[in-house]
Amino acid sequence: MLLKVHKNTVRTWLKSGLEPIDSRRPILILGRKLSSFLHARRQRGRQRCRAGQLYCFRCRAPRSSAAALADYVPITSSSGNLRGLCSKCGARMCRLVSFQKLAVVAGDLEVQVPQAQQRIGESFDPCLNCDLERVPDAQPGK
Asked: Can you give the pTM of this predicted structure?
């Protein structure tokens, strides 16, 4: 129960080939065997995208983008997502990519990189608050 998974999940793992320490109850499993079992299981289902491909969530496979177009959406200053539409089903596809490797990963895709938006501090015409320049009213009673 250290992994906080349901007991049926552990039973499924045991049926799939995970080896317990012995046949006694409670069933005990070595941590390194569990780790290698889960790692091998993840690697079997993993599908690598080649250059110019993005992962389609609906097809659950790497596909080429429709019309060979993709958008680069920055997440941090050094990485972002390539986004496009699947050429087979039309669903959204994406791929996490480093900005430095963008040209290699994109392959033959035409990638549109958004222009940086102007910051408030870099604006040319500052917003003037006219309320601060209002002339005080004559004092009452004088």
From this structure: 0.56
